[in-house]
Specification:
This protein has about 325 residues and is α+β, with helices and mostly antiparallel strands. The chain folds into 2 domains: about 150 residues, 60s Ribosomal Protein L30, Chain: A, CATH 3.30.1330; about 160 residues, Phosphoribosyl-aminoimidazole Synthetase, Chain A, domain 2 (Alpha-Beta Complex). It has 10 helices and 13 strands. The strands form 2 sheets. The protein has a 7-stranded mixed sheet with strand order 8-11-7-12-9-13-10, with helices on both faces. The protein starts with 18 loop residues before the first helix and ends with a strand. About 50% of the residues are buried.
């Protein structure tokens, strides 16, 4: 089995730049505007969208350092994660290119081949050709994809389109951050976490658009609470989350009890805490689970999506209540 021991195990991290720091860094920056720009920088959506003819062209990029020791699985996870931004907008990926940083004097190129092979396998499942890419010599391995997709402009899923009094649906369980962190520190492998992270959000996106949903985002590095906060802020609504209804990988609950909480998760909670109210029986551990920094997480959808659990609802006003 091909391994990245020393990078994922005790090394790599898929966490994004902390949300507060990132927002401060890009404050005041504006993208190129134009009548054909459907989704730009304004609300930090999952992908950019530009109208070309009667089609919305979607563009996104995502890459990170290893979250698992197995090179092939890391490639699969990174590809599913990059493709997820297209699905989160209600789109269909049509082409991808690889983005690779590789320590060629430290890790054999055969391992890089396995990473690329894993990415190709998931992209093939998505019917998305991988054509070309870019690589650099890098002290730490990094892999991901830039992905282009298409969507019906009338059916775009956006994070600024939520309305009050609608169900909140989550299409994958939480807990990959906790289990990835446990894997890094102990070497334990959790097949359910790998299965979750490599599962495409294609079917969930199709079900959401078929149901007439207009607002969604995917749950990744900022955790459920962080991405929900961004959606509520952009849409000028609030939300209520029923923590007992949130699906969680069972092994992640034990990882939480055992203290495998990443620094990124704690920063997520610190960022969103001023916007939270919680019921009297909601503990800090409950909030840390809801803020767990996910890799290749599910879609958070404003609306009911058949086959997926409802975890709360939107409300008029602002803020997030956890009960």
């Amino acid at each position: 089995m091909t391994r990245l021991t020393g990078y994922a195990h005790g090394g790599g991290c898929a966490c994004k730049i902390p949300p507060g720091e990132l927002e401060e860094a890009v404050r005041g920056l504006t993208g190129q505007s134009g009548e054909n720009v459907l989704v730009g920088l304004d609300d930090g959506d999952d992908a950019a969208a530009v109208l070309v003819g009667d089609v919305a062209i979607l563009s996104t990029a995502d890459f990170f350092t290893p979250v698992v020791d197995d090179a092939y699985d890391w490639g699969r996870i990174a590809a599913a994660n990059a493709l997820s931004d297209i699905y989160a907008m209600g789109g269909r990926p049509v082409i991808a290119i690889n983005l690779v940083g590789w320590p060629r004097e430290t890790l054999p190129l055969e391992l890089m081949t396995e990473v690329l092979r894993g990415g190709l396998a998931v992209a093939s499942e998505a019917d998305c050709p991988v054509i070309g890419g870019h690589s650099i010599d890098d002290p730490e391995p990094k892999y991901g994809m830039a992905v282009t997709g298409v969507a019906d402009p009338q059916k775009l899923l956006r994070n600024d389109a939520a309305a009050p009094d609608l169900p909140l649906t989550l299409t994958k369980p939480l807990g990959t951050g906790l289990l990835n962190n446990r894997h890094k520190q102990t070497g334990e492998i959790f097949d359910e976490a790998v299965d979750t992270m490599t599962r495409l959000n294609r079917d969930a996106a199709a079900a959401a658009t078929d149901a007439g949903v207009r607002a969604a985002t995917d749950v990744t590095g900022f955790g459920l609470l962080g991405h929900l906060h961004k959606m509520c802020r952009a849409s000028k609504v609030g939300a209520v989350v029923d923590r007992a209804a949130v699906p969680v990988i069972e092994a992640a609950r034990q990882a939480l009890k055992d203290g495998f909480v990443s620094g990124g998760t704690r920063r997520n909670l610190d960022w969103v805490r001023p916007h939270l109210t919680r019921g009297p029986d909601v503990s800090d551990e409950d909030l840390l689970l809801l803020a767990d920094a996910q890799t290749s997480g599910g879609l958070l959808v404003v609306g009911e999506v058949p086959g997926y659990p409802v975890i709360g609802h939107t409300v008029a006003g602002g803020g997030i209540q956890v009960r």
